[in-house]
Specification:
single chain, about 80 residues, alpha+beta, two-stranded antiparallel ribbon, 1 helix, about 20% strand
Protein backbone atom coordinates (compact mmCIF):
# COMPACT_ATOMS: atom_id res chain seq x y z
CA UNK A 1 0.00 0.00 0.00
CA UNK A 2 1.52 3.30 -1.04
CA UNK A 3 0.11 6.11 1.08
CA UNK A 4 2.25 8.90 -0.38
CA UNK A 5 -0.41 9.76 -2.95
CA UNK A 6 -3.59 11.80 -2.48
CA UNK A 7 -5.97 8.91 -3.16
CA UNK A 8 -5.49 5.82 -0.99
CA UNK A 9 -6.71 2.41 -2.10
CA UNK A 10 -6.24 -1.26 -1.42
CA UNK A 11 -7.57 -4.44 -2.91
CA UNK A 12 -7.80 -8.13 -2.19
CA UNK A 13 -5.69 -10.19 -4.57
CA UNK A 14 -5.46 -13.95 -4.75
CA UNK A 15 -1.95 -15.12 -5.62
CA UNK A 16 0.05 -18.29 -5.39
CA UNK A 17 3.69 -17.69 -4.57
CA UNK A 18 5.69 -20.73 -3.58
CA UNK A 19 8.04 -18.76 -1.32
CA UNK A 20 5.19 -17.19 0.67
CA UNK A 21 2.88 -20.19 0.89
CA UNK A 22 1.21 -20.78 4.25
CA UNK A 23 -1.02 -23.51 5.58
CA UNK A 24 -2.02 -21.31 8.53
CA UNK A 25 -5.58 -19.95 8.85
CA UNK A 26 -4.19 -16.39 8.69
CA UNK A 27 -0.75 -14.80 8.52
CA UNK A 28 0.08 -11.11 8.15
CA UNK A 29 3.14 -8.93 7.78
CA UNK A 30 3.73 -5.20 7.54
CA UNK A 31 7.00 -3.81 6.16
CA UNK A 32 8.20 -0.22 6.09
CA UNK A 33 9.93 0.39 2.78
CA UNK A 34 12.09 3.33 1.79
CA UNK A 35 10.37 6.64 1.28
CA UNK A 36 6.64 7.04 1.80
CA UNK A 37 5.66 3.38 1.55
CA UNK A 38 4.40 0.72 3.93
CA UNK A 39 3.65 -2.73 2.50
CA UNK A 40 0.96 -4.87 4.13
CA UNK A 41 0.47 -8.54 3.29
CA UNK A 42 -2.24 -10.85 4.59
CA UNK A 43 -2.68 -14.46 3.53
CA UNK A 44 -4.13 -17.67 4.83
CA UNK A 45 -6.37 -20.65 4.26
CA UNK A 46 -9.44 -19.37 6.15
CA UNK A 47 -11.24 -16.59 4.24
CA UNK A 48 -13.30 -15.75 7.35
CA UNK A 49 -10.08 -15.15 9.29
CA UNK A 50 -8.24 -13.35 6.48
CA UNK A 51 -10.94 -10.75 5.71
CA UNK A 52 -11.02 -9.01 9.12
CA UNK A 53 -7.23 -9.26 9.50
CA UNK A 54 -6.87 -7.59 6.08
CA UNK A 55 -8.92 -4.60 7.28
CA UNK A 56 -6.95 -4.36 10.55
CA UNK A 57 -3.60 -4.69 8.77
CA UNK A 58 -4.47 -1.97 6.25
CA UNK A 59 -5.51 0.36 9.08
CA UNK A 60 -2.23 -0.30 10.91
CA UNK A 61 -0.23 0.26 7.72
CA UNK A 62 -1.88 3.66 7.21
CA UNK A 63 -1.24 4.58 10.88
CA UNK A 64 2.32 3.28 10.74
CA UNK A 65 3.59 5.71 8.12
CA UNK A 66 3.37 8.94 10.16
CA UNK A 67 4.07 7.19 13.49
CA UNK A 68 7.55 5.71 13.05
CA UNK A 69 8.32 5.24 16.76
CA UNK A 70 4.92 3.81 17.69
CA UNK A 71 5.65 0.48 15.99
CA UNK A 72 9.42 0.35 16.53
CA UNK A 73 10.25 1.16 12.93
CA UNK A 74 13.53 2.82 12.12
CA UNK A 75 13.39 5.84 9.85
CA UNK A 76 14.27 4.47 6.41
Amino acid sequence: MHVGVPQQWSMVAREFETDTYTDLPVRWHITRRSGQEVKAQVRGTDADAVAPRFAETCAQAVDRLPNVGKYGDAEV
